[in-house]
Design goal:
This protein is α+β, with helices and mostly antiparallel strands. It has a single domain, classed as Nuclear Transport Factor 2, Chain: A (Roll), CATH 3.10.450. It contains three helices and seven strands; from the N terminus they run αββββααβββ. It has helices spanning 3-6, 27-39, 65-82; strands at 8-10, 16-17, 20-21, 23-25, 86-95, 102-111, 116-125. The strands form three sheets. Strands 5-6-7 form a three-stranded antiparallel sheet, with helices on one face. It has a two-stranded antiparallel sheet with strand order 1-4. The longest helix has 18 residues, at 65-82. Pfam families: GPW_gp25. Residues 25-115 form the IraD/Gp25-like domain. It comes from Stenomitos frigidus ULC18.
């Protein structure tokens, strides 16, 4: 495994382990990076205004096929742009049966250096 490419850094949010900052390593660092990209609205970071995902522009959309398509597109575009360590294999979004204004975004991705496949479910609230 190429640890230099996959990276080691602080966890997000920062956590302590025996008084030391706990690192996020390799595939866990990638997973946390994906979560950070999706959780950051474009324009939110002063020094990197184009970083993040335009997903937040859709927060007041109604739960419709059009909104779901826009969510999927926003997630794919941001991950392709901001996470070079992965190949995005598939992104789907389905309404949560228990919460009508919540979409469950299922992201399937391949970590390039290890050829390992993962998925991450990201909850997103509409309206």
């Amino acid at each position: 495994m190429d640890g230099n490419f996959l990276g080691v850094g602080w966890t997000s949010p920062v956590k302590l382990d025996k008084g030391q900052i706990k690192p996020a390593k390799y595939e866990e660092a990638v997973r946390q990076s994906i979560h950070m990209i999706l959780s950051t609205a474009r324009g939110e970071r002063l020094m990197r205004p184009d970083f993040g995902c335009s997903l937040h522009d859709l927060v007041f959309s109604t739960n419709s096929a059009t909104a779901i398509g826009q969510v999927i597109s926003a997630v794919q575009e941001s991950l392709i742009q901001w996470e070079p360590r992965i190949d995005v294999l598939d992104v789907t979004a389905v309404p949560d049966a228990d919460k009508p204004n919540q979409l469950l975004i299922d992201i399937r991705y391949l970590v390039r250096t290890t050829n390992n496949r993962f998925n991450l479910v990201y909850p997103f609230y509409l309206n």
